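Suppose you are handed a protein chain with no further information: no name, no annotation, nothing but its sequence. What can you learn? This example shows the usual starting point.
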Amino acid sequence: MRVLVLEDNELLLETLEDFLENEGFEVDLAKDGEEALRLSYQNSYSLYLLDIKVPLVDGVELLKELREYGDETPAIFITSSTDKDSITSGYEAGCDEYIKKPFDLDELLMRIKAVLKRVEPQESIKIDENYSYNVKRKRLLKNNQEIKINLKDLQLLELLLTNRGKVVTKEMIKDKLWQNEELVSSGSLRVYINNLKKIFGKEAIENIRGLGYRFK
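A reasonable first move is to predict its three-dimensional structure. Written in structure tokens, the prediction is:
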């Protein structure tokens, strides 16, 4: 797992780097909020470990901006503050946990593991009385027997299920199924939607005109 650490105290930054690498994490370091923001756009992380009082952009404002852009990476704030308003603003910005300076490294590791465990994807999603989807193994099951469907059908199904009850836009589907491929026809998208409707029934997937689809 890859962790971004934002901390302007160089000694603590080096300590955290050594400790986390010894625990098997890949670690990227930032000494100010702007550098952390740049790294967050360039890389994908499993966790943000953010000091609050840092130069240029503080940790709270940094996390607010990331959350506004849809980045849901779990975040732990490091702070020397005991002020209730400061802690409240951190949670409102979207942090998952706090740890106060000075802290024990073993306690930090326990908090990291607890946060990562909470955000683990479900191993299995129950679709209805007959069907379920195994998230980790990427398998569609009917009465515990695997149903063979193609990869893009599976990718589409997972996207719809993890956003069940919400509108999944056509842009979201194209990003998930085709990523960097430039030419994507609406006809191809409808083919995969219809493939899933054949399995779950026409009423299972609602067409939201002009926007996308919703799995009921």
